[in-house]
Amino acid sequence: xxxxxxxxxxxxxxxxxxxxxxxxxxxxxxxxxxxxxxxxxxxxxxxxxxxxxxxxxxxxxxxxxxxxxxxxxxxxxxxxxxxxxxxxxxxxxxxxxxxxxxxxxxxxxxxxxxxxxxxxxxxxxxxxxxxxxxxxxxxxxxxxxxxxxxxxxxxxxxxxxxxxxxxxxxxxxxxxxxxxxxxxxxxxxxxxxxxxxxxxxxxxxxxxxxxxxxxxxxxxxxxxxxxxxxxxxxxxxxxxxxxxxxxxxxxxxxxxxxxxxxxxxxxxxxxxxxxxxxxxxxxxxxxxxxxxxxxxxxxxxxxxxxxxxxxxxxxxxxxxxxxxxxxxxxxxxxxxxxxxxxxxxxxxxxxxxxxxxxxxxxxxxxxxxxxxxxxxxxxxxxxxxxxxxxxxxxxxxxxxxxxxxxxxxxxxxxxxxxxxxxxxxxxxxxxxxxxxxxxxxxxxxxxxxxxxxxxxxxxxxxxxxxxxxxxxxxxxxxxxxxxxxxxxxxxxxxxx
Length: 496
Ligand SMILES: Nc1ncnc2c1ncn2[C@@H]1O[C@H](COP(=O)(O)OP(=O)(O)OP(=O)(O)O)[C@@H](O)[C@H]1O
Ligand SMILES: [Mg+2]
Hints:
The protein is α/β, with parallel strands linked by helices. It has four domains: 7-141, Rossmann fold, CATH 3.40.50; 162-331, P-loop containing nucleotide triphosphate hydrolases (Rossmann fold, 3-Layer(aba) Sandwich); 334-409, Helicase, Ruva Protein, domain 3 (Orthogonal Bundle); 421-478, Arc Repressor Mutant, subunit A (Orthogonal Bundle). It has 22 helices and 14 strands. The protein has helices at residues 7-15, 28-38, 51-61, 74-88, 106-112, 127-134, 136-161, 168-182, 197-206, 225-233, 250-253, 269-281, 307-312, 318-324, 338-355, 365-373, 379-393, 411-418, 425-439, 444-451, 455-464, 470-478; strands at residues 20-24, 44-48, 65-68, 93-98, 116-119, 187-191, 215-219, 258-262, 283-285, 292-294, 298-303, 327-331, 362-363, 398-399. The strands form four sheets. The protein has a five-stranded parallel β-sheet with strand order 2-1-3-4-5, with helices on both faces. A five-stranded parallel β-sheet has the order 7-8-11-6-12. Helix 1 crosses helix 3 (51-61), helix 3 runs parallel beside helix 4 (74-88) and helix 19 (425-439) crosses helix 20 (444-451). The longest helix is centred in the N-terminal third of the chain and has 26 residues, at 136-161. The protein starts with 6 loop residues before the first helix and ends in an 18-residue tail after the last helix. The model is unreliable at 1-16, 149-160 and 470-496 (pLDDT under 50). It binds adenosine-5'-triphosphate (ATP) and magnesium ion. Adenosine-5'-triphosphate binds at residues 162-165, 191, 193-199, 304, 344, 380-381, 384.
């Protein structure tokens, strides 16, 4: 078992960068001779007289090399090396020193975890060299760990952490992402353009057991029908004009990992059949090939289309729809999570200020109002582009409404602000519920998700206000001439 990067390493960084060598022997002469060979080679030497103490040091200080003197005897040396190895793993090398009369124990010592065995005093001159060589092992182990952590940070953790979103609807989505990631189930991500479906797909991969495997993405809309099949499943040499060599498809590339089929609604009938077979049987053939291939791939599909509707229109296979729609993740549009607009705007502001080496501290109130009032049909991508443009164009250290490529906020937002203090909480609640219902097309379920309250609360309130029929509300929203009834606060409905 590998030792978690811990106390020992922290100590070393703080105290000294020199490697630590621990010498263990309960025999005074033995200790003296070992130390004599090791001083003056630039190590930090630590000497202990018994195994238990040595094990404590291994745990606490994380020495890179432990030299086990012959004074301990074979049985105790074996036990110390075995337990020490279990604690420190690749981060510590063990050198056992033996009397020639006990050379029969060499194999046992190596099996227990000793990296080198020296006979004493015959190999006395070689001890310093042996220690120097042994230091390579923990050094490599550290480098591998650092490289692995670096890769993980760059590819995985980093991406997931970049999902900004504190709104309850987003928090619920993220916890569903974590649940879905643990399973093997196929995932269907649905959401408007620019809502972050690709980030969500990456998060599913990164939190799954296959996170060390590949994450392969294919945009199904970007390829012609004929190319799509070979791109997904690969092809054999000569299977079509231009197929000069056998080629692995995305399925094979994603073996052991996750394959994101982006814009999955765009795949043609023929590929739909082949994809369905993969989802049912976990097997496929390359284009022009007879060999049946099996790969271990989890499918995540993303779409901004209404797949159910496409099924009804006869444009998407129903059986495939059900095979894809095992776990469904719905990414809410940005206008349904207004608190995230501000959060994301601040996030992108920091990012682009740094990238453009500009000092921009924040947004003035009018700019913030404009951000909140804009409906963001292009969702997070549109917001991201708007902030980038504003950061590049702004002349001062604060972004003003005029720097943003969106319309300024209607006076209404300012007037809402002006009404506080003055407006009652009940009025505010009524305003929030009705405006959210309006933004959600009259759906109490979606409005409840946005507001972070139960659907029943909304229905109860609607009843109280004599507005209990959501279908009526939806109809009213569709007819601009009869806007939703708003609370008697003097506030007007936003223009559609
Ligand atoms: N919650 C978020 N936090 C941070 N960045 C986000 C978030 N959501 C989206 N983004 C950023 O917005 C941009 C669009 O996201 P993404 O490409 O994942 O959207 P999409 O839903 O796949 O869009 P499309 O349907 O057009 O393919 C990306 O640059 C992404 O990094
Ligand atoms: Mg996308």
